[in-house]
Amino acid sequence: MAAISVIPGDGIGPEVVESALGLVDAFGLGLDVDVLDHVGADRYRREGVALGEADLARVAASGAVLLGAIGRPDLEHTGYVRDVLLELRYAFDLYANYRPVRLWHDRLSPLRDPARRALDCVIVRENTEGLYSGIGGNLRASSDHEVAVDADVNTRHGVSRILDFAFATARREVCLVDKANAVRAGGRLWQECWRRAAERHPGAATRHLYVDAAAMKLVTEPERFDVIVASNSHGDILSDLAAALAGGIGLAPSASLNPESGFGMFEPVHGSAPDIAGRGVANPFACLLTAALLLRHLGHDTEAAATEAAVAGSIAAGRTTPDLGGTLSTREATRAVLAAL
Ligand code: ATP
Ligand code: MG
Fold first, then answer.
1. How far, in Å, is the centroid of ligand 1 from the Cα of 272?
2. Name one Pfam family in it (predicted).
3. Residue ranges per domain, the chain?
4. What number is the ipTM of this complex?
């Protein structure tokens, strides 16, 4: 059984995955890696399938999967991305999207006030239901009376388990974000599950914010947050806001987890970035920080912390790709991190 299965994917995916695999290799942990090079847009175009049963079996036989990026502009309106990402998400029931947000260097903060830079929080996003359930449709389509409906699906099971995960993740506080004052039925369910989850986890402090207030407070007092838990759509939006506060998408790692099985999919928050793909300038740090999450998940805490420190050191020394103001290529920035190790 391979310790890690790897789907490099499209665009800059293979470029940043190469960096991450170089990092894992440098630690000499003897981790067996199974690379699924063929999963991607070319195969989807040829065969109409990007991720087959045999691929899923290989992924299932590993302890975790590292994914670069999936997406190609000319396949945007096909089922391609959903096919791969949702297939993986549902096959392994990866309901907990875990997005740590840390400001690795003051220089990267868009906020002027130094007190606002002690940013170190985690966004826990529900990954399998909510507004992105795909249930809905267009009534009287193309007429002047067209009505478009997208169902916001929340189940007691789904809400309870993501709240439990948030409490298990908290160091000092869990902040529930919702819009229960305007979206009533789902709001009621989240609020009730929230009260029960808080009773099950008396250790952590709790806080509740409506999503509009949460967006404001992430900018005005980001240092106050520890764990933020939110539905699929709210978590999606807030995590991009938080990523921007921490230096941008080139630095944001994520994991989609099933805490019960212990299986996880690890991927940088950014996509395939077709505008810079093939030029060797993609920032590898998001994928290196993603590899750090993966290493920690597999029990290699020392290596994970060393990776994070080396990335922070490279940023401090200005040894970065152009998106962070540096002049290095993807490979040079990766070497800078490896040298700092
Ligand atoms: P996808 O459809 O795969 O999500 P996208 O067009 O949404 O791709 P993203 O990858 O999300 O693109 O990137 C958005 C912007 O951020 C692009 O301009 C891209 O070049 C930039 N970007 C994303 N990732 C990186 C990175 N690792 N290094 C530098 N720039 C990046
Ligand atoms: Mg995108």
1. 6
2. Iso_dh
3. 1-92+267-341, 110-245
4. 0.94
